[in-house]
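Structure ticket #2291
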Amino acid sequence: MSRLERIYAFHQKLKKNSFPNATTLIEEFELSRATAHRDISYLRDRLLAPIAFNSTRKGFYYTDDDFTLPFEDSPKLLFLMGLLNKMADEAGLGGLPEMKKLEKRLSELIAPGYNQLMDNVLCQWIEVESLAPSIFEIIVESVLKNRILTITYRSAAAKTSTRNLEPQRLINYQGRWYLLAYCHLRGDHRLFHMARIETATIEKKIITPPHQAPDSLLNEAFGIFTGKIRYHATISFTGTAAELVRRQYWHDKQTITEQNNGIILSLPVNDDREITMKILQYGSMAKVLEPESLREKVRMEIQKMAKCYSS
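Resolution: structure written out below.
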């Protein structure tokens, strides 16, 4: 058990006026006497706890009953720790042993407030995909240790391939995890959807200068399918769609222009797939103004959708 957890437990006994001492810590946590005394000194000298020793009761007590630890009774800190754990769970990492361990420690450290918070906070992303903990751990290790990663990858078209990668960055986008890596098979940087990685093995250390991905690869254009800008999409939004999009952030280079019945959004695009889905999401309240190629793509998709319901 960590020092912080021991100090918290000791603090709780002080608050109850049970006059704990070094022996209390030794018996509860199986410590050496030297470690127990260091914990008490840390509470007094580093956390500035107003403690004194009562020779009659042979234990410590607080000279100021209003004293609290820095991390105790702090709604903001409690909320932040709970939110981080909730977000990890919703990002598909809740099954990792480390996350379970962290949640247990937090609940023991700040109980009962932590458990109450977890019951009253909902952090929900749609289309969240769970990852195999063993594969996620291997990928993280390869990124941290700068080692070649060999994976078996199943594409969206259900085709399986084996790739040797130079992993560079982990990305969580809309609840899905991606790995940015230099792919030796393709001789270029690729984004790999981590839920589609079926096996992963760490190989030798990357000795040659790594093929670093330029920052523009990730932030130049809209969406997860980013890269060099192919065009700027200009879209008109009306009605409730305009009210929603007006307050949304799609890209740091986006511009929003007000018009009589709504707004016009313009942003850089590399790949048509995600921007097409976003436009269709708003139905008749979204209309592509430019470029013509995107207008045609959306128009064709709407026609195909209409045929699905024509019968």
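Closing remark: The first helix runs from residue 3 to 15.
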